């Protein structure tokens, strides 16, 4: 494969950038602007009183907020907004790396080096001898390699779980989805969607039984089990439940606000219409706001 002219040592080993084909090299102008941004962040940490006093903990919520703003920009289809929000996420990567560098923990180069090593290691079908053109096989191999890495790094510690690495702070639907992906990656999965749907029906029956009782704890537990089973079915048929519910939330908001606009135009409030009239307005909103992407909404 083509090699980089600079094969200087990196942490005692050759540079990993000699692995990729030369046609994919990042243009020099891009790397120079990245260096400008990194330099600006370093100066802000010294010269700006607000930036200087921040810690990993004090700005962690802002990173979550920026990540959601990226998602919102993607869903809006606005490339300018996406460009801006990705820049904000990149700023946080550099900001946290600079804080760590000041404390002598790691640098942004360490962050990049670790990511390069991981990507190369987990893509043996690109950078190694493994041959496959099956996306599912790639994903399964990724999870196997990740588990092997975890077992190797913690060989002297307590047994590692295949579920390690799924953040507890993830939204619950997404966390359920990711845990199920991890479990499926080691072979713990229903054999087909039909079997998975049978589990949904089983959990629904158990929830109905609990719902008929006065046991609030049992009702909550069985409802959670039902949601978990539905997430699992969604995963097996190629639906991301977090994205699906996000879309439903957006459609509900859009239709509800349509009704509010109609009420406002007629100088009415919610108190002025019956539930049946509101339902008629809801159906009107569905028709007025229907788009190809929402054609299957109910």
TrEMBL record:
Pfam families: MazG (PF03819), PRA-PH (PF01503). Residues 54-127 form the NTP pyrophosphohydrolase MazG-like domain. Its EC number is 3.6.1.8. It is an enzyme of class 3 (hydrolase). It comes from the Bacteria. One of its GO terms (molecular function) is ATP diphosphatase activity. Transmembrane segments: none annotated. Residues 1-26 are annotated as: Disordered. One of its GO terms (biological process) is dATP catabolic process. Keywords: Hydrolase. It catalyses: ATP + H2O = AMP + diphosphate + H(+). Belongs to the nucleoside triphosphate pyrophosphohydrolase family. This is Nucleoside triphosphate pyrophosphohydrolase. It comes from Longimonas halophila.
């Amino acid at each position: 494969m083509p090699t980089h002219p600079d094969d200087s040592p990196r942490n005692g080993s050759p540079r990993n950038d000699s692995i990729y084909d030369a046609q994919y090299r990042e243009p020099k102008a891009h790397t120079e602007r990245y260096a400008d941004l990194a330099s600006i962040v370093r100066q802000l940490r010294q010269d700006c009183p607000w930036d200087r006093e921040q810690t990993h903990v004090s700005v962690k919520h802002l990173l979550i907020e920026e990540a959601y703003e990226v998602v919102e920009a993607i869903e809006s289809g606005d490339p300018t907004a996406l460009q801006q929000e990705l820049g904000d996420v990149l700023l946080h990567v550099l900001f946290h790396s600079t804080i760590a560098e000041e404390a002598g923990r790691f640098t942004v180069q360490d962050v990049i080096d670790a990511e390069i090593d991981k990507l190369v290691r987990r893509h043996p079908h690109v950078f190694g001898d493994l041959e496959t053109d099956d996306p599912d096989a790639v994903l399964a191999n990724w999870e196997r390699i990740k588990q092997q890495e975890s077992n190797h790094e913690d060989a002297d510690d307590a047994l590692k779980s295949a579920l390690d690495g799924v953040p507890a702070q993830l939204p619950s639907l997404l966390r359920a989805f990711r845990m199920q992906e991890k479990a499926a990656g080691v072979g713990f999965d229903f054999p087909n969607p039909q079997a998975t749907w049978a589990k949904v029906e089983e959990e629904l029956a158990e929830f109905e039984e609990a719902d008929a009782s006065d046991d609030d704890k049992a009702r909550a537990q069985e409802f959670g089990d039902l949601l978990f089973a539905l997430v699992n079915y969604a995963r097996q048929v190629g639906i991301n439940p977090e994205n699906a519910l996000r879309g439903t939330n957006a459609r509900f908001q859009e239709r509800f606000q349509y009704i509010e606009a109609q009420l406002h135009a007629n100088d009415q409030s919610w108190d002025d219409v019956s539930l049946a009239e509101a339902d008629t307005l809801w159906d009107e909103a569905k028709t007025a706001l229907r788009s190809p992407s929402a054609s299957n909404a109910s």
